[in-house]
Backbone:
């Protein structure tokens, strides 16, 4: 059983819903804790093999609380830890010029020596205060399953040695 920590922030509740959906999708097979970024403490990281960080995109970046959580991780603090990142975002194409939170989070997790297992993912909301677009919760559950498959593959020895 893999110890998984999901750290998230949410202003209007959409990212929280995605974080909980991912947590529920993983929970039957893994030991999962889901924690708001402002409540995350160093002891939450003890023994964690997969760290998933999610945030609403605000001005092309994660929220202050998520930025502070990431900043508090020491250099090389994620050695041996698989990492994944997600965000919520609006579907308007023009906002893309600012970038998205998930890519930003993912880059920081990798800089702290985390092992990338899946590309960062964005889930869509219909407007600034949500709600989530139809089907996005289901897509989040699927993403969680794909993540575990990718984890299992990355840990498996290659057939040809
Ligand atoms: C101050 C602010 C800035 C935002 N900037 C962006 C942005 O740059 N790109 C984007 O796609 N959405 C942006 N949004 C919309 C958020 O992504 C949306 O509020 C969020 O996905 C909702 O998630 P939450 O319910 O977890 O807070 C912004 C929202 C706020 C409040």
Residues:
């Amino acid at each position: 059983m893999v110890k998984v920590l999901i750290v998230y922030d949410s202003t209007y509740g959409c990212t929280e819903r995605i974080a909980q959906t991912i947590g529920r999708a993983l929970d039957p097979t893994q030991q999962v804790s889901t924690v708001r970024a402002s409540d995350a403490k160093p002891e939450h990281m003890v023994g964690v093999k997969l760290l998933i960080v999610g945030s609403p995109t605000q001005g092309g970046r994660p929220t202050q609380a998520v930025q502070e959580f990431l900043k508090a991780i020491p250099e090389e603090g994620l050695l041996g830890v698989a990492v994944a990142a997600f965000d919520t975002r609006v579907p308007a194409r023009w906002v893309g010029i600012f970038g998205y939170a998930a890519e930003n989070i993912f880059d920081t997790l990798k800089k702290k020596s985390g092992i990338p297992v899946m590309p960062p993912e964005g889930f869509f909301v219909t407007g600034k205060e949500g709600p989530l677009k139809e089907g996005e919760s289901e897509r989040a559950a699927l993403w969680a399953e794909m993540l575990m498959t990718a984890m299992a593959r990355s840990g498996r020895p290659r057939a040809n040695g």
Observations:
- The pocket of flavin mononucleotide is lined by residues 10-16, 56-60, 88-90, 95, 98, 125, 128, 130 (CB under 6 Å).
- Residues 136-155 form the longest helix (20 residues).
